[in-house]
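Last lecture ended with a question: if I hand you only a sequence, what can you say about the shape of the protein? Today we answer it with a concrete record. The protein is PCI domain-containing protein. Below, first the input exactly as provided, then the predicted structure, then a couple of comments.
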Amino acid sequence: MSRMSNGDIDEFRTAFQHGCPKFLSPTTVVFEGGNLAKEPLIRQSNAFLEGIENQIWLPILRGYLKLYTTLPLKKLANFMDVEEGDHDSFIAKLLSFKMIVNELGKATIGGGDAEDASMDLDFYVDKDMIIVADTHVARRVSEYFIKHITKLQDVTRKIKQVAS
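The predicted structure:
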């Protein structure tokens, strides 16, 4: 797990190949040529690793965004070791991160009171500046008022019971 959290792609490959469903070939064993039975496993493994490589940098990006309220795009690109010519693809990665966080938020609405740390961050790109909004504070304020409103309703209900 520690190698996975450090971004070791080979560890992801090994874990996937051990844990994924195995594919059975309906054909007989061919002793000549390559082993075609491993081809579906290799194809699935490569597709999985491509998705991992696209998302492995997301926790690092989230960490940088949590540190700042405004951040120049070039500064964040330098932090993430993005080369000068790849800024357009970096903006696309930022927007995909935002889409992933929004989709996670939609999936967990109504899923309980457990707070998800990945959903307390929102940002937008304005020209060459990234503006970060931490929504966790606003959520705490609203939770405070909702909790006190329910307490007030309980107290008024008890007072009505005692009075009658």
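Comments.
1. The first strand starts at residue 70 and ends at 72.
2. The chain has seven helices and three strands.
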